[in-house]
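Q: What would this chain look like folded?
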Amino acid sequence: MDFKKMVRERDEAFTDFVLTGRTEKVRAYCRKYGVTMPTKKAVFEAGIYKAVQLCADIPQEVKDLAAGKCELLGFKPMLRPLEGGGHDQTD
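A: My prediction, written as C-alpha cells:
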C-alpha cells in the first residue's frame, strides 16, 4: 500500500467535504480503504472536521473552517494543534 497516496486521497476527500459538504469522496475513500463510518450523520461529519485539523498537509484556512463547522454541530473542535503540524507526516 502506498501510504503517501492514501494520505493524499484522504486529504483531497476531507478538503472537498469541508468546502462543499458533499460526502461522496469521503465515502468512496472509506470504502476503498476499509474504513468503518459512523452511522449518525452528525458524528460522521464531526469526525471528519476533527480529523481535518490533524492533517499535516491540509491548508490552515480549511482547518479553521472545519473547526467552525464542528462547533456548529455542537462538538468541540480540537483544543490544540499537534507539534509539527499534524500526525501523518511521512518524511
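Residues 3-77 form one domain.
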